[in-house]
Design brief:
Layout: E1 5-6, H1 13-36, H2 44-68, E2 71-72, E3 78-79, H3 81-105, H4 109-132, E4 134-135, E5 138-142, H5 144-167, H6 171-194, E6 196-200, H7 212-236
Antiparallel strand pairs: 1-2, 3-4, 5-6
Helix pairs in contact: 1-2, 1-5, 1-6, 1-7, 2-3, 2-4, 2-7, 3-4, 4-5, 4-6, 5-6
Transmembrane segments: 12-34, 46-70, 82-104, 111-130, 142-164, 171-195, 215-236
Keywords: Membrane, Transmembrane, Transmembrane helix
Region (Disordered): 248-287
């Protein structure tokens, strides 16, 4: 017997809230990635780690906000705590690998393709691992073609987002990139959900695991608090919003205007001529 799946039990409330969380995580993660490319190497790992955690937390929170609106009419839905936690860890680790590749190798060519592919696969892995944590009186089956489409959406979105992090410097451009990334992540989620079919076992017993209200709502408090903290760090970092580089006296970095680097050579004082006399020559002086 096939179950009746409803992914919009609360109407548009859960899709809109999920989309906003994906945009928030994407915006913070992209700004941190952009910032990492404008600072010295000693600060770069910290910004990349913060960006990885922001994107991972954002897409994980987005997924489970959307899952709050998921239901199967013929059976209650429960969640395994360990698998749900593992999906968050997978998201942060795999997104982090992709972001670190782009942060150190640059947002172009092979590095961009490799980093974006790993990041996109991390997003897809988080989704399907989170789905594997569901417990109900039935079996989940997926349409292979639709699942493949959802993975392609995730990879393309990740590549585009990381490219934007390396190329876009203005605040409004970054906002636009995060909105597109949020739309792509949400599209990947609901494309993956469209691939799902539930075949019921016929048993009326309550499946093992925690209900969405007792597990998902408390679990989302931590990632939400982290995203707010990351937002505060980004907002109060000097020159963060405009994406301008730090003044660096020791390193001339590509893409940074020359006036931000101190020149150690002697400068000519205005009004003072540079002497061109050769040794032994005498120049008349007017007193």
């Amino acid at each position: 017997m096939q179950g009746t799946v409803d992914g919009f039990s609360y109407g548009l409330v859960t899709p809109l809230a999920a989309y906003l969380m994906a945009c928030l995580g994407g915006a913070l993660g992209l700004r941190c990635t952009t910032r990492s490319m404008l600072v010295t190497r000693s600060w770069r790992p910290g910004w990349l780690a913060l960006g990885s955690a922001a994107i991972g937390s954002g897409i994980w929170t987005m997924h489970f906000i959307a899952m709050m609106g998921f239901s199967v009419q013929e059976t209650p839905v429960r969640y395994d705590r360990l698998t749900t936690f593992a999906s968050l860890g997978v998201a942060i680790v795999m997104v982090g690998i992709g972001i670190f590749i782009v942060g150190y190798k640059g947002a172009s060519g092979t590095a961009l393709f490799t980093g974006g592919t790993i990041t996109g696969l991390g997003i897809a892995s988080m989704h399907y691992l989170g789905m594997a944590g569901m417990r109900l009186n039935g079996k989940l089956e997926y349409n292979t073609f639709t699942v493949s489409a959802s993975v392609v959406i995730a990879v393309v979105a990740a590549i585009a987002a990381l490219w934007a992090a390396g190329q876009v410097r203005g605040f409004m451009w970054s906002v636009g990139a995060s909105l597109v990334m949020g739309l792509a992540v949400s599209g990947m989620h609901y494309t993956g959900m469209a691939a799902l079919n539930v075949h019921l076992h016929g048993s009326a017993s309550t499946p093992a695991g925690d209900s969405p209200a007792t597990l998902l709502a408390p679990l989302m408090v931590g990632p939400l608090a982290f995203l707010l903290l990351a937002g505060v760090v980004v907002m109060f970092d000097p020159l963060m919003v405009m994406g301008k580089p730090d003044w660096s006296p020791a390193e001339q970095k590509p893409g940074i205007p020359a006036h931000t680097v101190r020149h150690t050579g002697r400068r000519t004082v205005p009004g003072q001529r540079r002497s061109s006399r050769r040794p032994g020559s005498r120049t008349p002086q007017n007193w």
